[in-house]
Amino acid sequence: MSAAPANAADKTVITWHGILRGMRENVVISIGLLPFGFAFGTAAASANLPVLDATLMSILVFAGSAQFAALGLWSAPLPLAAIAATTLIVNARHIVMGAAMQPYMKGLPRAKLMLVAALMTDSSWAYSYQRIVSAAQIGAQRDIGILLGCAFLQWPLWAACTALGAWLGGGSLDSRAWGLDMVIPAYFAITVIGLWRGKDDALPWIAAILATIAALIWIPGNWFILIGGAAAGLAGLWLPMKEAPKAAGAAQ
Amino acid sequence: MTSLPDFPYIEPIVLAAIAVMALATYATRLGGFVLMGFIPISGRLERFLRHMAGGVLIAIVAAATYRGDPAIWIALPLTIGLLLISRKAMLAMIGGVMFVALLRYLAVF
Fold first, then answer.
1. Is the Cβ pair A89, B52 closer than 8 Å?
2. B58 to A228: CB separation less than 8 angstroms, yes or no
3. Of chain A's two ends, which shows fewer C-beta atoms within 10 Å, N or C?
4. Which one, of A27, A36, A29, A33, lies nearest residue A165 by Cα?
């Protein structure tokens, strides 16, 4: 993230060739997205979100974790401030991802950069970041169309699977009897396990659990997510600094 | 929530919530690109954001467990175990959901 592109004179471009390549190379991995879109739809249905609303959310937000997190707060009257704050912090990782990508976007017009940012998901970022960095290292053309292609493929799939899940999960289905209220805890438990990077994560995780439980007991409202997140962030700062050489800002 | 009219209809408050989420999400997606134009993201800020993102997910699991019933308490460790053994996220998730359904069907809880 600290290394500048090898050939700074190069421009980052978006070509149809790149877009099609991004679509083609993500077909297989995108199949893995289908069950999660479906799961979000069923979870939305069990949170009493109608099919249309759930689908619109998947189209406009297009961020699985934040959408699942919002469902955890979905009770009338809708806590807009808590939903906004939770969305911001669940998605805070995007800031890090965008910051990592930015040095490789040199020469891309602002409007196109805004489009790239709009379609930057965990999976489209991970796929294209790796390739853009390699291209910069060998001085090849940087075609960020591959990120757009990946997202163009996954966006409609995500929305369609949400609609299907919400439609099947709604209606007369007894979501509790089918265990659908387990979808959210299971989804996040699985995501969290995937984030484990070693024993340095233990302290922030414990801090998050304790702060969340304390907030649930003593603080009314839906601020437990923010409090748990902030506790983990602060605990992470308190850890001894031992950054990998390639980590952000190491050269600063 | 209420009975739906014949034409496509979304409650204004729900529409507002979705709009707020969309804007907040886009702000984070664009934020990194914009910030880097002014200041490099420092190692400390990067660490804070990364640990906070993980902490948020943990908070959601902790809250769901705290508010859940014994079926969820039992199924959650099994879901994690299934994930660690199989390394397949979807299998673990389906297994966890089915296990909750089974426990409730058997009226154990």
1. yes
2. yes
3. C
4. A36
Angle between helices A33-46 and A183-195 (to 10 degrees): 140
pLDDT digits (tens, 9 = 90+) for A162-205: 999 999 887 666 777 888 778 878 888 887 887 787 888 899 99
**Residue A7 scores a pLDDT above 60:** no
Contact B24 A87 (CB under 8 A): yes
Tokens of A2: 């600290």
Residue B13 to residue A73: CA distance in whole angstroms: 14
Look at residue A129 in the predicted model and tell me its pLDDT.
Answer: 87
A63 → chain B, closest CA residue: B25
Would an 8 Å CB–CB cutoff place A110 in contact with chain B? no
Query: Can you tell me the distance from the alpha carbon of A29 to that of A108, in angstroms, rounded to the nearest whole number?
Result: 27
User: In this structure, what are the phi and psi dihedrals at residue A25, rounded to the nearest 5 degrees?
Assistant: -80, -5
What ipTM was predicted for this assembly? 0.79
Residue A226, SS3?
Answer: helix
Distance between CA atoms of residues A108 and A105, nearest Å: 6
- Partners of B33 on chain A (C-beta within 8 Å) are 98-99, 101-102, 105, 113, 117
* Mean of all residue pLDDT scores within chain A: 85
**Domain boundaries along the sequence of chain A:** 12-195, 199-252
Chain A nearest-CA residue for B105: A177
Alpha helices in B1-109 (DSSP H): 12-38, 43-67, 70-86, 89-105
